[in-house]
Design a protein that fits this description.
Layout (H helix, E strand, L loop, with lengths): L1 H20 L1 E4 L2 E4 L12 E9 L4 E4 L2 E4 L3 E8 L3 E8 L2 E4 L4 E4 L4 E9 L4 E4 L4 E3 L10 E8 L1 H4 L5 E10 L4 E12 L18 E9 L3 E13 L4 E8 L10 E5 L5 E6 L15 E3 L1 E3 L1 E5 L2 E3 L1 E5 L4 E5 L4 E2 L3 E8 L4 E7 L2 E4 L3 E5 L4 E8 L2 E8 L4 E4 L2 E3 L4 E8 L3 E8 L2 E4 L3 E5 L4 E9 L4 E4 L4 E3 L10 E8 L1 H4 L3 E10 L4 E12 L18 E9 L3 E13 L4 E8 L11 E5 L5 E6 L15 E3 L1 E3 L1 E4 L15 E3 L6 E15 L5 E16 L6 E9 L3 E8 L4
């Protein structure tokens, strides 16, 4: 009953207020709605509510009652110390501009979001639109743009160092390679399309790669500050040398009274900013909405060590906000550098640490003795391993396993726990570590092609999209023989996925894809498999063919996979792959196109210089990956004199020290229990490599000092 009464009263208020007063006030804002005089029946109207976030950061106007089908205009005005970011409705971003106009179709709440700008900064321009060409056009390989900002806009009356510039990208994230110049100039505008301002090498304030964030602010901190003279206008010159393109970046702009911008872009010309007068550019009244950061020299950086096992040094300050600083750590004697920490938090494992100063900073360098990372191949004849050695805590370590002829890499394990299933494995050292590279014999009646160096998402299919089409070329040298192929297997390293696939195999003379449309065209006769496949995790997944494929032994082999699933999943699968010297794979993926493999030329795909590691099954092929974990018990641990091992079918035990040196080999003769006499060993940590009927595993034990 209360709801009905409230609704009735609200309805009467809306009708009466709308018809008699023709306006509604919402928190001090007024929206006009014109109607014929004397109208008493309610119109089809909606309430638009506006607010700001955070409170006190600015003003939002334009809320009120609107007739459906009419245009609402919302305006956001930032308070001092803030900048407008965007309008949101619910969870979605609606616009990065103010004013923001839209057609009213329903009642809704809009929030104007503002971002606090750093102290000692200058905000220039109220954003009214966006421009793809400014500060550079990511849809083209190269851009040169020049914009003039006036002394009145800067508002500085004395010489001042500028330390950064901030742009607001309303589109998708793009990474571009920029050289930025800033010039004191008396020029107030550009007179024609070749009236460029010519910078010098001394005018460079930044050079490097910049990722323009999606829908947000990106601050570019200068490599060296710009000395503004306090009275001139300033020219901001951005030379984009990226050499590649992708549409999607649009930065906020505002309109000037005259042509204060000149720009040019091309796929074929990498512009020379020192000789620009030959370029016929485009004049514009649009300039980027920017924030210039002032170089405030007020921050200090000091360094110390956790012990006397190392030395440290740092550049002298004071520093301004955003300035780069480098600290150096040097170990003494046999010690190693571990990491840099700030306020107890690890910030870098690089002994020479370069960072951006954002406040007073105290860094501590941690040193200590090296810890051992031991790498071994299991079985020893299965392959070779490189990496390991002495490392500092927190330091990166990379190891590589390479299978010998007749063997296949399985995975890396640390004390029977699988830590990686690709040959190249990188990790941060947390302490003494024994890594086993496990190998298995290549399954009988099969051909393994490629070493599994990493896992990648695009091949053989990309489960992040509804549909995909991929083609991969394997050379005659890689396959090595003529044969009838009965299956193909891929190794999935991430998430279990079920996909609906059609597989085609072809003998081909093609050894690489020459362009993004250089597809191979199969026929129905090339189809070897069609059906639903579940790619389980950390295992080989076999696709057994309906009929064998006859490979001729002298051509190359094309593997074509058409994914017709029609659904996608954010947690996509990634299969083992390896790098090659040429573009021997091509792929395309979309949500709205179920690709036709018989007419692929109309699709512009992406060429790849890597391809999947595969197992080609021949007649009689079966495959089961070797298990790597068995219940083997070692006790007591730590021990003084005796050590017992329990497991099924123990054959041999090897004892290594932490340097990887073999200390002793004991034959177990297939027993289920083995007693080891370790009384003569010195107090230390030792590694046990235990060989049984089905596997080889490792354990470690601690030899205590005898009391």
């Amino acid at each position: 009953m209360k709801r009905m009464v409230a609704f009735t009263l609200l309805s009467l208020f809306v009708v009466f207020g709308y018809a008699q007063n023709n306006s509604v006030s919402m928190g001090g804002t007024v929206s006009e709605c014109t109607v014929d005089k004397g109208q008493t029946a309610p119109l089809d109207v909606s309430m638009i509510v506006v607010s700001v976030d955070p409170v006190g950061s600015g003003m939002a106007e334009g809320g009120g009652l609107y007739e459906n089908g009419s245009t609402a205009v919302l305006t956001a005005t930032a308070n001092q110390g803030f900048i407008f970011k965007n309008w949101t409705k619910g969870e979605s971003s609606e616009s990065f501009l103010s004013p923001y106009s839209f057609t009213v179709t329903e009642g809704a709440s809009y929030v104007a979001h503002f971002v606090e700008v750093p102290e000692n900064s200058i905000v220039i321009g109220q954003p009214t639109t966006t421009e793809e060409p400014l500060p550079s056009n990511s849809y083209y390989n190269y851009t040169l743009s020049e914009q003039i900002f006036t002394a009145d806009e800067l508002g500085l009356t004395a010489p001042t160092d500028l330390a950064s510039v901030t742009f607001v990208n309303t589109g998708t994230a793009k990474t571009r390679n920029y050289t930025i110049y800033m010039v004191n100039t008396e020029r107030a505008y550009f007179r024609n399309a070749v009236d460029w301002i010519v910078p010098t090498e001394d005018d460079i304030v930044f050079t490097g790669s910049v990722t323009m964030a999606a829908g947000g602010l990106t601050t570019i901190y200068f490599n060296s500050p710009f000395a503004y003279d306090g009275s001139s206008n300033v020219a901001l010159i951005v030379d984009d040398n990226t050499g590649s393109y992708s549409r999607g970046m649009e930065c906020r702009t505002f309109t000037a009274a005259d042509d204060k911008t000149l720009y040019i872009y091309s796929d074929n010309t990498n512009y020379d900013p020192y000789n620009p007068t030959s370029y016929n550019g485009t004049l514009s009244q649009e300039r980027n909405h920017v924030i210039f950061g002032l170089a405030s020299y007020e921050y200090t950086v000091d360094v110390s060590t956790n012990s006397d096992e190392g030395m440290v040094s740092v550049e002298e300050g004071p520093f301004y906000y955003g300035q780069q600083c480098t600290a150096t750590a040097t170990p003494i004697g046999d010690n190693v550098f571990y990491y840099w920490a700030e306020n107890g938090v690890r910030v870098s494992v690089d002994a020479i640490y370069s960072f951006m100063v954002t406040g007073n900073t105290h860094l501590v360098a941690y040193f200590g003795p090296p810890v051992d990372v031991i790498v071994m191949a299991v079985p020893e004849e299965g392959g070779t391993v490189i990496g390991g050695g002495g490392f500092g805590i927190g330091q990166p370590c990379s190891v590589t396993a390479t299978a010998n002829g007749g063997y296949l890499f399985t995975n890396w394990t640390v004390y029977d726990e699988v830590v990686s299933n690709v040959c190249d494995y990188s990790f941060s050292v947390t302490g003494e570590t024994v890594l086993l590279a496990n190998f298995e014999k290549i399954p009988s009646n099969s051909i393994v092609v490629g070493q599994a160096t990493t896992g990648r998402t695009f091949l053989p299919t990309y489960s992040y999209y509804n549909y995909s089409l991929t083609q991969q070329i394997y050379t005659a040298d890689e396959i090595g023989q003529a044969c009838d192929i009965t299956s193909i297997a891929f190794f999935n390293t991430t998430y279990e996925k079920t996909r609906d696939l059609t597989v085609y195999l072809m003998n081909t003379r093609k050894d690489a894809f020459e362009s993004n449309t250089d597809w191979l065209v199969p026929t129905e006769a090339n189809k070897v498999f069609s059906g639903v496949v579940t790619f389980t995790v950390d295992s080989w997944v076999d696709l057994f063919f309906d009929i064998p494929f006859t490979y001729d032994g002298h051509s190359n082999l094309a593997v074509i996979i058409d994914d017709n699933t029609g659904t996608w999943d954010n947690n996509h699968m990634a299969c083992r792959s390896y790098d090659v010297d040429d573009y021997q794979a091509i792929k395309i993926n979309k949500d709205d196109v179920d690709f036709n493999p018989f007419e692929p030329q109309e699709y512009s795909g992406t060429r790849l210089n890597y391809k999947n590691q595969i197992i080609l099954g021949l007649e009689g092929y079966t495959h089961t990956s070797v298990a790597t974990s068995k219940p083997i018990t070692v006790y007591p641990n730590p021990t003084e004199n005796e050590l017992y091992l329990e497991g099924n079918g123990l054959k041999k035990v090897e004892i290594y020290n932490t340097l990887g040196q073999l200390m002793e080999t004991i034959d177990a003769h297939g027993s289920d229990m083995l007693r080891l006499d370790v009384s003569e060993y010195g107090p230390a940590v030792y590694i046990l490599k235990i060989h049984s009927d089905d596997e080889t595993t490792t354990r470690r034990f601690v030899k205590k000092m005898t009391e």
